[in-house]
Structure formats: C-alpha cells, structure tokens
Amino acid sequence: MTTLAPSTAADGTIQLATVKVRHWKLAISLGIASVLLFLLFLLVPRGGVSTFRLGDPSSSIQLPNVSVPAAATCWGVLVVLVLLTAWAVWDAWSYRRTGIWLPIVYGVLAIFAFLTWAAASADASVPVTGLLFGALSLSIPLIFGALGGVIGERVGVVNVAIEGQFLLGAFSAALLASITGNPFVGLIGAMVGGVLVAFVLAAFSIKYLVDQVIVGVVLNVLVTGLTGFLYGALLVPNETTLNRPVRFTRWEIPVLGDIPIIGPVLFNQTFIVYLMYITVALVAWGLYRTRWGLRLRAVGEHPQAADTVGIKVNTSRFWNVSLAGAIAGIGGAYFTLVSVGQFTKEMTAGLGFIALAAVIFGRWDPIRATLAALLFGFATNLQNLLTVLGTPIPSEFMLMLPYLVTIIAVAGFAGQIRGPAAAGKPYIKG
C-alpha cells in the first residue's frame, strides 16, 4: 500500500513524501499452508490411486470417474502451490497487492491435493457433486445470518443476536408451518421472529443506549431459554400437530439443472436457496448502488455528518436492524423447513456466531461475507467426507475443523481490515 506522509523541508514548507508498506500476511499464510501440506505428504505418505466421482444420478449428462495417482499428484500440485506462494512473496516484496485470483486458485489446488491424499487407496471415491451440494446446504443459514450482520454493522449496530434470530425464526417456522400446512406461512413467521429479536436489540441499543454486545448476548441466552421452554412445554406433548412442518421441496430449473457438476448443486434446490441467490444480489446491489445503501453506509461511518444533511440516524438504524433480523430469520427457517424438518432444542448449535465471524472475515461486504460463509460450510462438510474416507487424521480434529477454519480466518485476516467507524457506538444528537 502507498500512503502520503507529511515532511518538513529545509525552508520550512511542508511536503508530502510517499511511504510504501509491504503486506506480508497473505504470503505468510500461504507459506504456512504449503509447509503443513509438505509435512503431511512427507510424514504420512499414502500411495495408490484416488478416484473422484464427477457424475450425479439426478443429472441427464453423466461424466466418468477420474482416477489419479495419489503420490505423484500430491507432490506435483504442491510444487505449483510453492510457486504461487513465491508469487505472493514477490508481490509483497515489490510493494504490490496480490490479486484475489491467487488465493482462490491456491485454495482450490490445496483442497484438491488434500482430497487426493485423503482418498488414496480408499474404498470410497470422492463425490465432487455431493461434496459441493452439502457445502452449499450447510452454508445457507450462515449466508442469511451474515447478510443480516453486514446490514446491521454497516448501519452502526453490532448484531450479536444472530443466534437468537436463528432460533426464534426456526421455532416460529416450525410452529406455523405445522399448523397451516404451508411452508411459506412458516417462512413469513420466521422473518417475523427474527424481526422481534432485532426489535428488542434496536430498542435497547439505540433508544436506551445499552451496550450492543451485552444486549446481543443477553438476547441469545433469553431466546435459547424461551425456545427451549416452549419446546418442552408445547411442542413435545403435541409433536404430531405442532412440530411436523411441511417442508420445501426441490425445484429443478430446466436446462440449468442438467449442467454437469454445478447444475445439481445450484439449480436443483429449494425455494429458500433460490431466495438466497436473490437476497445476496439485492443486498450487494442495494448497498452500493442505491440511495438506501448510501444512507445506510453514511449512518454507519459518520452519523454526525449524515445528521447534518437531514438523515434521521436513529430511525435509519432502527429499521435497517429490523430488516437484518428478517433476513437472519430466513436462515432460521432453513433449519426446520428444509434441513431437519422439525424444531429441536438449541438446534442452531452456535452457527449465529459463525455467521458473525463470516461478517468480519468478509470485511463487512455482502459478497465477501457470502464467500466466507461458503468456506465455513465447505469445512463442515469436508469433516463428514474425511470421516467416510477413513483418513488417519483423528476424528476429534475432524469435529473441530470448521471452528478451526473460523479462528484462522478471523485471526489471520481481521487485523488488516477496518469495520464501519460508528459500529457499536450509540448516536446522541447534540
């Protein structure tokens, strides 16, 4: 990065001097990953052949399985990874920013090498379509939660209550879809549940100036206890009538659903997944291309300046936090209307905090936060696949893999980014 720093000349005039800063974080991260893969392939060598299953039974176009020699492929890909790492080092040394393509290509190749090592001489093959389908399915609630977190923090309110919005949304969706027999009614109920939690968060943090993080944590505990109580007192005794929601079925898009590999993953999904595509596009477009997005970002960055041009800061924060709660509530509906099929106690299992981590890792940008959520979903599904393949990695490490990725992502990249300047700070009009 190049910045301008003031300096004083001999005649007393102030001049601007160019200061260059090297960014080593990406190069160091890729270097560490390359060393870990090298040690894995060296200390735990696996020979034989690795098979990747590219075809999918639901697709009309079937692709043959691809088999590769495990050892040669792993070491060959590792050489390419080392070259990409050297590229990142050279960019850092030359004061250049590395393009986003490099870490993406590195990540894809590293995962391919790791899966080749894991599937070597295994009885099962790597189902590429199934791996991607499962990763997307596990990412859907995280994406909705991350979008809600992005909107909340961009407008100046830290949305720690995503977990509570998930839970109440899931409970409301299960209850209303069971009573009415209509999953769309359950989806609307989930959005209302998310708005209720967001309403309380906004009221205490904006109107009564309570610390936003504390309010969010208290709301999570409150909703966890409330839904747990209602589950035991209401849903368990009446399980067949109140906890058997009608679920969304898959809708395959003609032609697109027949595309090899990605067709069954992206275009043979439920209504909520298609709604996710639209929501991500609308939030990304609206945040940077509309008057609403400009006002929202202004309130989150410099509320005093926004107030001087006639923007009602606290009103804007209140309604946008409510919108964020509605979006997060859709993520809660996914648990009961698509994934599980009924509500269970504490079924979200802390995914609201993973969604909040995706917001930070995604630099408070809807597209980047979506990609971060997809990364966490892929790590979760990869844990299941590695268990099936019977890798020598301990099962305890497999269980901690998604959370390990979360910690590395936030700890490794959060230090070089800056969130909205007024996030977490109440605005008192002078």
Automatic annotation (TrEMBL):
The keyword Ligase does not apply. The keyword Membrane applies. The chain crosses the membrane at residues 26-46, 66-88, 100-120, 126-150, 157-179, 185-206, 213-234, 271-288, 318-341, 347-364, 371-391, 397-415. It is found in: Cell membrane. InterPro entries: ABC_transp_permease. It comes from the Bacteria. Keywords: Cell membrane, Membrane, Transmembrane, Transmembrane helix. It is a multi-pass membrane protein. This is ABC transporter permease. It comes from Microbacterium arthrosphaerae. The lineage of its organism: Bacteria, Bacillati, Actinomycetota, Actinomycetes, Micrococcales.
